[in-house]
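Side project, low priority. Logging it here so it doesn't get lost.
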Amino acid sequence: MKPCIACESSARRIRRRVACGVLALLFFPRAAAAEAHGRSPEPRAETMLDATTRDEARRRFDRGLVLYDAGDLMGALAEFRTAYRLTKHPVVLYNVALVHAGLGNAVEAVSALETLGPGISALGPERAARARKVQAEQLARVGTCEVRTPVKGATIQIDGVDVAHTPAPPLRVTAGSHLLSVWAQGYEPRRLRFSVAGGANEVVDVELAPLTSRLAQLEVTSNVPDVDVLVAGRPLGRLPFTGKLALEPGQHELELRRAGYRTERRRVTLAPGGGGSVAVTMQPSVAGLGAGGTLKLSLSEPSAVVSVDGTPRLDYALGMQVPVGRHFLRVERAGFFDVEREVFVHAGMNRVDATLLPRAEYLEDYVARAEGQRALSYVVFGAGTLTAAVGGAFLIWNQGEKNDAEERFSAFVATTRDTPSGRCENDACEAMLAILVDDLDAKRNRDVYGFIGLAAGAAAVGASVVLFALGDDPARYDASPESDVFALSVRIGPTVSGLIGTF
């Protein structure tokens, strides 16, 4: 069962942040003491990263955590490797080792943990002990292969990867079955399968027969991985190869096979000491597609270009029918780092989330644009609120003015009614009545300015809400707290531990 690296509840995140402060005192006492006495701590290597590198590393690590939590171990491994290349931080390398262990790559997991060396102490005593435990568990799944041949300088390939030249010390391999290839100029290449158990050493004696002519070099590539390459029915290995194949000069019949694809055959003629290349595009078979799986992508960015096994696909959002097995996935969009990932497709629906990371130039423009629009929404909101408040205040003030005008008018009318005729009897009375009526009407009519202010303010507030809601989030591409690895927090899975921390 895989360890949980990234998932945390909100409560545990709070506890993690509190723990980070304690861990800082435990793991970096000199720096903590220096800060406590008002002095600047000695700079550490991780603090010397430039801002751009540090930011990309955090985003890579963050995406690795997301992919790991989603079960995409190969995608997580690619992101963690990039983050480690940028930071050389032991926590990142520890996560690389965990993912290798989850993928069954025992040799790579052990190698990563051994590379930690003295840096393992940066994980803390308990975490270092767990790292050593994982290392011991994975080492138990590692055997060695000792290749013996009297020919010096012969190239040793294991599973299509050049690993050493003879004479070579015992070579580490993950327990199981492997394809061994040994070749040297002037000798006939030998290829054979061997099996090794964990903790065991398998001795393989290889006799190389001399040739009268020089070997030829053949480069074989394919658009899909895990393609078995055979010559005259003899297996040469499984693509992709890290180097070229050494073959005897002459004519060869190549056969390329993978379940779910049509078998491809190529005929090549190689001159002594010469070279050649064969690039094969494997085509899915009808039966392979029928028994295959559906690969459906969810992209973080629109208008991206998606390629599967080197072929652009437009149906990635609806679901692409592909044969079962490994496939190369590539997602490209201007302004973003390309996503290159191996995905393993099972029968049925396979959902893959692809998060694209922005490049520095795009991110700078995006944040400036998003912050500008958000600032505009704040300004419009403030102006609208102020306008509405002024309009409302004007209506309240004008209501008092209207009340006073109505009282004066009512008082004058009451006085007029007390006359014998009950109405104005001279021009002065008529003039005063007209003045009071005009004053009251004027104060009533100017309510419209207050209502206009209220309406304009409400419209501005509504527009600001729309601007805020439809605008881009300046923090959209910020890495999450789980991507910080320069302060530590630990999650313990059923079998091994997972680490997260802060950059």
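Brief comment: Residues 361-470 form one domain.
Revisit when time allows.
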